[in-house]
Design a protein that fits this description.
With 348 residues, the chain is α/β, with parallel strands linked by helices. Helix content is 36%, strand content 22%. β14, α11 and β15 form a beta-alpha-beta unit.
Length: 348
Amino acid sequence: MSQTIEIKINESSRVPKYKQIVDSIINDISKGKLKIGEKIPSINELSESCYLSRDTVEKAYKQLKEQKVIVSVKGKGYYTAKTDLISKIQIFFMINKLSSYKMMIYNSFVNSVGINAHVTLSIYHCEESIFERTLERNLNAFDYYVIMPHFKTEELNHVSATNGAIKMMERIPKDKLIILDNDKIGVQGDYGAVYQDFQEDIYNALKTGLEKLKKYDKLVLVYPSKTVYPYPRRIVHGFRKFCSKFNFDFEVLDEIYDDMELDSKDAYIIIEENDLVNLMRQVREKNLVLGKDIGIISYNDTPLKDLLGINVVSTHFKAMGETAAYMVLNNKKEKVKNVFEYIERNSL
């Protein structure tokens, strides 16, 4: 067994033991306690020395192999990855806001690149001035720039990219630029992109749920038109297109108001979670049956919505991060439309 490896298992921690093994080995490598190409204990050796099940150690080693932290050599055992497997890629990752959805993408990206790269996260809050200053300071300092472009006007309307932001992004070499989430930015050239088509995505997703929606008399989109972090107006265009195509009576509201006039046989498509909570509270207070009297579809999926049985239309955040990481690791400059789907549960 290696003399330098130090696996620390905290029995009282809620962190899974396999994850503690992963973190401990990566930490030893980062501190130089484990050298590149050094042999590490076998699954059986580590299982015995740390009093862990073989399955736990095997799960940890599987994740380490997927992240290219270790490699297995047939008949010899496990070794820390060779130098040529560890590329010190420096990545600047810019997001417009700190939300659970954006962090799902970021975490998926970081997990997928593994120790192949160092990722620096920057948040510009949809502000053109912050975006420009931040990017100006960091031009030519990174190997890749992964950017989610969403900006706001002085009137708090959404715009995919301002003239100033476009000029800044044009200064990034195209082979170093990957655009995420929103590709309607006006930047010319052959760069990588993993994007949503906000208009067609919601149109096609609602079309998938058409048969369930037909039992409702009116569709109501709750689209916050004035918010600190505005949403693309193309969502509204796609909703209107769907309602016109399939002859639905419809309405677009800014928010779910207190004491809403809730009519039976209305279905709501809700973007912000505060509006979702407010509507569900009022549905319960008025003894309406969700999925029978009132229908709800929420925009963007979360584990909590899954637990509560809320129907959603949502892009696949994990896939977006994984695809972007694949482009970085394989030096690809493709433009990929991300998966967007309607997920049927119990609220429609």
